[in-house]
User: Fold this.
Amino acid sequence: MTTLMISAAEASGDHHASQLIQNNPSINFIGMGGTLSQQAGLTTLVNSNDLGAVGLAETFQKLYKNIQALNTLKQALKTNKNIQALIVIDCPEFNLRLAKYAHKKLGIKVIYIAPPQIWAWRKHRIHAIKKYIDHVVCLFPFEPKLYHQHNVNYSLAKNPSLIAMEKSPLFTYAPQSKVIALLPGSRSSEIKNHLEIMIQSILGNKKLNQHSILVIESDPCHKEYIQSITQSSPRTRYISRSSCHRIPISFALAASGTVCLELAICQIPFGVIYKTSPITTFLLKPFINVKYFSLPNIIMNKPILTELIKIPPSFQNLAKLIEKLNQESYQKKLITELKDLKKKLNNHDGTMGSILLHWLSKQPSL
Assistant:
């Protein structure tokens, strides 16, 4: 049986890893993952739930645990002679270090799924990718061109959000429903920054007096806080993401993130907001290389969605956005653009699982 090590340190990576494991029962997967990967059958060497998030800031906060996890995986790569390749998913701060060790010290082949977003920032990481990664599995249609330019082997996988929304869409477009969905973010800081201003801006629009507001949480840990906000308005109610399936809505407001791509695939008219402090905006601006922040705009390379990002969204700006989203002509125009986006996403080389199996079949040493 083929044995592969997998390293998935974050929630999105854990989801991707679980899909790979479920869809490839003939492969023995060992390594690092979270709840989903473990439920799918991962032989767990490191539980990523114990690490928390592993971004740059969080790496400093949880330095000891991260070093322990890295050393555990390195030791397994060194001593377990059955491991035939390493799969790293997302989380470049951690995974590029592990990939370097596997490739440079041990000569183990490395495949990177959901690679670093070098198209957005920290472009210098392309040099580490060229040195230590044997094959990159891209998830967005604008990424292959970049890797082609740098002579990196790559494939374009069917985006997991597309697969998920085709199987079980969160929403359906129904303007007559008079329901507005709010998706304020996945982190507590995002929800606190976005939710109240979203709700107040809608309640302040007299044209929407007959509309109800649906607030969707991405993680049950935020339930108590969200309910403390929604209970103050009889027109506003809370629902968990796990309960969302083909809910009819008129339009939506969302914080920038993966959920924007999910809404776009469902072809829901929506706007994007993301509130940051002026100092954060000032510090990050020199390092960011994209014109847009939401994935649909980046994929289409034009502003099909309105983004209130660069400055903290004011009531006035948000009110104008809501007014626009409530217009039938704008909704129809936006849905046409979202259909084109979905066509772009459907141009791919196969699923992550099929790409992995094809790559493995081409490795003579495996």
User: Anything to note?
Assistant: The CA atoms of residues 164 and 262 lie 9 Å apart. The chain has a mean pLDDT of 89. The two ends are 11 Å apart (CA to CA). The longest strand covers residues 2-8.
